[in-house]
Specification:
The protein is built from 9 helices and 9 strands. It is α/β, with parallel strands linked by helices. It has one domain: Rossmann fold (3-Layer(aba) Sandwich), CATH 3.40.50. The strands form 2 sheets. It has a 7-stranded parallel beta sheet with strand order 3-2-1-4-5-6-9, sandwiched between helices. The N and C termini lie far apart (37 Å). The protein binds NADP nicotinamide-adenine-dinucleotide phosphate. NADP nicotinamide-adenine-dinucleotide phosphate (NAP) is lined by residues 14-21, 39-41, 44, 64-67, 92-95, 116, 120, 142, 144, 187, 189-190, 192-194, 197.
Length: 280
């Protein structure tokens, strides 16, 4: 398939102030894309926008809390006013709480994760969609392997990403005639700030200890961004990273065994995280 470059294509990325979103922005800037960058931390966002401009892209930082529907509408309107079109929306903002469901004090944190990971994407999609239909553009949703296979102690994250996957699959069917592709990205672990921002059941971020699960082989944000952009370019429906493909086959054909493997893998990573290790 001929490869599309994103030169002069207007792209909104949420969660662009760090990690995968930042890496996507930098790669798109290298191709001369026009970027609308969204997240809450205005200073970090402005630094990313500045780096994008230095690399040859156009970029504006649009501080946005995606849990606020009105702010998402304003995000889309701002990008549209700046560039006159929207060719791609990347719903990438996300966070997680790691806690046993029965240990939650109440459902506030559960709702918070749903609000960012699912409703945040829903808000942006709703307001960007008419413009994506005009441009026969691309919708890209950053899910997770946890959006295909449940893992323990991440019930709100898993629920939010399964919901995002369901929304994506339904929209893909609805939008096929309009020429809008819907791509779901399911990364395994990626070295970002994500695991530092992991909240515990009291809503406290894990901090640098969250990075202990990374090894030298853990995917970098730039590697993840490269795979994501290739998938978007080719209008692929879904990308599974890490052990995703075999794990999904295992779950389809031997779900009991899959449960045991997932549990053992998860517990192994928890044990590794609780041992001291230099941060990466
Ligand atoms: N890293 C991994 O191992 C991994 C694996 C699978 C899937 N993912 C997914 O990848 C996506 C990106 O995460 P990452 O790994 O790059 O982690 P990250 O560095 O922590 O980035 C998360 C981004 O989400 C933004 N965000 C959080 N809450 C927000 C809100 N209410 N409104 C707007 N933006 C918000 C953060 O910006 P502000 O704090 O400035 O708002 C930040 O830019 C997430 O959807 C995550 O679920 C990550």
């Amino acid at each position: 398939m001929a490869s599309t470059r994103f030169t002069q294509q207007a792209v909104i990325i949420t969660g662009a102030s760090s990690g995968i979103g930042e890496a996507l922005a930098l790669r798109l800037a290298d191709e001369g894309a026009w970027l609308g960058l969204a997240a809450r931390r205005a200073d970090r966002l402005e630094a990313v926008a500045d780096a994008c401009r230095q690399r040859g892209g156009r970029a504006i930082a649009i501080p946005t809390d995606v849990t606020d529907e009105g702010a998402c509408r304003a995000l889309v309107e701002h990008a549209l006013a700046e560039y006159g079109r929207i060719d791609m929306l990347v719903n990438n903002a996300g966070l997680s709480v790691v806690a046993k469901f029965s240990d939650f004090h109440d459902l506030g944190l559960f709702r918070r994760v749903m609000d960012v990971n699912f409703y945040g994407a829903l808000h942006c999609t709703y307001y960007a969609l008419p413009h994506l239909m005009k441009s026969r553009g691309r919708l890209v949703n950053t899910s997770s392997l946890g959006g295909k296979l449940a893992i323990p102690y991440n019930s709100c994250y898993v629920a939010s990403k399964f919901a995002l996957g369901g929304l994506s699959d339904s929209l893909r069917l609805e939008l096929a005639d309009a020429g809008v592709s819907v791509t779901v990205i399911c990364p395994y672990w990626v070295v970002t700030e994500f695991h530092e921002h992991y909240l515990d059941r009291d809503g406290r971020p894990k901090g640098p200890a969250g990075r202990k699960l990374y090894t030298k082989r853990t995917m970098t944000a730039d590697q993840c961004a490269r795979i994501t952009l290739e998938a978007a370019r080719r209008r692929r429906r879904q990308v599974l990273m890490g052990p995703g493909q075999p794990a999904i086959w295992l779950q389809a054909f031997a779900p009991g065994l899959a449960d045991r493997v997932i549990e053992a893998t998860f517990m192994r990573s928890l044990r590794r995280r609780s041992q001291p290790r230099p941060s990466v």
